[in-house]
Design a protein that fits this description.
The chain is an alpha/beta fold. It is built from 10 helices and 10 strands.
Length: 246
């Protein structure tokens, strides 16, 4: 699938990220494949997936395009950091290669333009830039990526970490990049996804808010553990003490 076909397939729609790392209860390619099936039934038009095993299983389970990445390590540039990583997920069936396109030092000494040139020339697949700043997105676009997203906003020193999407960066990217911009990064609610599309994002990627029950549960636990600012209303509308029947 070339970049134009992929972008046409996802325009204005939802991409679901199906990922679970080794320390998560749902880790395993068979589980991620079933998660992808659930996402497809729910209306997702593409899947974002990590590692050759998960990508291979997902491609066998659903007939959706897959944005592939390969997380290696836990810090620095670890999202598809090398050409070898890109080659492995291409062989597994990824339709698009996602990679860290931040300005941080890269493994093996390759510059980002050199790495992208190898991926485009030798693997023949479009690339998806995960960035943390506008300047990084601009550099990635100049180097030939087909699309970019503020996936890493708040995960480097370039911008502060937010509870939700970095809409300010998203707006800058939409306005100034010559390539399509995908909204990704802490999109936690349908309303945030709708807002991103209304701003001009080409599509929206949602991951943890859909596919990570541990994270979803923790968010609910945190919310209900915070006492309300005042007494809860009773059936008459007047205030009452929280937990009055307990």
């Amino acid at each position: 699938m070339n970049a134009d076909a992929f972008l046409a397939a996802v325009k204005g729609k939802l991409i679901v990220s199906c990922q679970a790392l080794e320390d998560e209860p749902l880790h395993g390619s068979n589980i991620m494949a079933r998660m992808a099936v659930a996402a497809q039934i729910g209306g997702a038009v593409a899947i974002r997936a990590n590692g050759p095993d998960d990508i291979r299983a997902i491609k066998q389970a659903v007939d959706l395009p897959v944005i592939g990445l390969y997380k290696q390590g836990e810090s620095g540039v670890y999202i598809t950091p090398t050409f070898a990583a890109a080659a492995e997920i291409a062989e597994a069936g990824a339709d698009v290669i996602a990679l860290d396109c931040t300005e941080r030092p890269r493994p093996e000494g390759l510059s980002l333009p050199e790495l992208l040139a190898r991926i485009h020339g030798e693997l023949g697949l479009p690339t998806f830039a995960d960035v943390a700043a506008l300047s990084e997105a601009q550099a990635a676009a100049a180097a030939g990526v087909a699309m970019a997203a503020p996936t890493l906003a708040g995960y480097t020193d370039a911008r502060p970490a937010l509870d939700g999407p970095d809409f300010a960066l998203l707006a800058e990217m939409i306005e100034q990049l010559p390539i399509p911009v995908i909204a990704e990064g802490r999109v936690n609610t349908p309303e945030q996804a709708r807002r991103a599309l209304d701003m001009g994002a080409g599509a929206v990627v949602v991951g943890s808010a859909i596919t990570r029950p541990r994270t979803i549960t923790a968010r609910f636990v945190s919310a209900i553990s915070t006492p309300p600012p005042g007494p809860l209303p009773d059936e008459s509308g007047r205030g009452s003490k929280p937990g009055r029947n307990w």
